[in-house]
Amino acid sequence: MPNRADFILRDDVIFLNHGSFGACPRLILEEQRRWIERLESQPVLYFRELMHHMRTARQALSEYLGADAANLAYVSNSTYGVNVAAHAFGEMLQPGDEILTTDHEYGACDRAWKQYAIDKGAVWRRIAIPMPAPSMNELCELIWSGVNDRTRLLFISHITSPTGLRMPVEELCARARKAGIITVIDGSHVPGHIHLNLSELGADFYTGNCHKWMCTPKGSAFMWTSNKYRSTLPALVVSWGSDIPTVGDGMFVDENEFLGTRDHSPFLTVPFALEWMRRSDWEEVQRRSRALTSATEAQLAAIDGVVSIRAEGADPMLQLGTVLLPENVNVVEMKNWLYDQRSIEVVVHEWLGRPMLRFSVHAHTSEADLEALVASVRLYLGTITS
User: Fold this and answer.
1) What is the pLDDT of residues 129-179, one digit of tens each?
2) Are 169 and 201 in contact (CB under 8 A)?
């Protein structure tokens, strides 16, 4: 099983923010370097062979995600994927049609829907999710209570970025499908983190990052769409796409992957990363990380004024832990103190008026790292309440 020595993280920093950008192991970086050198040694040949190599990389990821490769395209990040969805589905909406979402969505994605749909007359209905959060069943009923006869699309995160909550997307997709409502799922934190089978999920559109929990190079993500929309979704960027006769993987793939000259090495490295995960006993990496996350969240919640954001008794499925901090915490000062005085890189921010701390656990995280976090939070909160 991989550990800290397999990564190039700085020794003088306790890195507990894998969830924001991920951390790439040495071996995977070396594989990416081989692709870059292959490009630079004969650029014309590289691009002549590129579509074949992209097809191989796409097939490997599709198998991992339980998807048909023709329904999946590589993109640089899931925010780009959401922009494609907002652009495409926004064109289908009429003024007054409603998009149902929650108030725990990623800010950049909120902006994308505003640009392509809300500014054109669609209604943005946000369901308020309380903190601490209710159970999964209660969350499902709460979100679904926002559906009405004008609801045309459901946009929701599988795991929320600002608050680290797992949403009941499986049940919501099933209900939406029966009601004829389009589903767009932001799975930024899902691949390599929790099980995902796109063919079984039943969403209309799904996008996720490989460069977070799968540990691939930055700039490797994907978007997937169902058969219903594969031939009709317009591309966000117009390039040569399907006009290149040697491409031929279908409009959805061709128009979204062949965008001219750019760095494809993050995508081409994905098959190697998947094999690295397999050899690393990924299920054990996840089991250990989840156990450490749950234990650390409980230890933090035992500090006066700190509360877990999850429902009591929630299934410990995540490697993201989030706690609510006392309301008098200045999040900027606390974040700076943790980094400057304790060398801890961790998320401390305010969301919906509530100060919170979000930490991540992965293969490179040690028990000592998490013990240092708990001790430091206890010390800092003690100084501002004494």
Assistant:
1) 999 999 999 999 999 999 999 999 999 999 999 999 999 999 999 999 999
2) yes
Q: Which two tokens stand for residue 255?
A: 């128009």
CATH number at residue 86: 3.40.640.10
Give 130's DSSP letter. P
Regarding whether 307 and 182 lie in a shared domain, the answer is no
Amino acid at 228: K
For residues 310 and 308, what is the distance between their CA atoms, to the nearest angstrom? 6
71 and 204 assigned to the same domain: yes
Do 100 and 178 sit in the same domain of this protein?
yes
Residue 65 region by backbone torsions, left for phi larger than 0, else alpha for psi between -120 and 50, else beta: alpha
Enumerate the H helices of the chain as residue ranges. Answer: 18-21, 26-41, 43-65, 78-90, 107-116, 136-144, 169-179, 198-201, 251-257, 265-268, 270-279, 282-301, 331-342, 367-385
Of the three residues 250, 276, 302, the one that is the final residue of a domain is: 276
Measured distance CA(270)–CA(64) in Å, rounded? 11
In tens, the pLDDT along 305-327 reads: 999 998 765 666 799 999 999 99
CB-based burial label for 96 (10 Å; 0-12, 13-18, 19+) = exposed
Q: Mean pLDDT across the chain, nearest whole number? A: 94
Q: In what order do the strands lie in the sheet with 320-324?
A: 307-308, 320-324, 354-360, 347-351
Taking alpha carbons only, the member of 138, 110, 108 closest to residue 310 is 138
Check the CA dihedral 239-240-243-246 and report its sign: negative
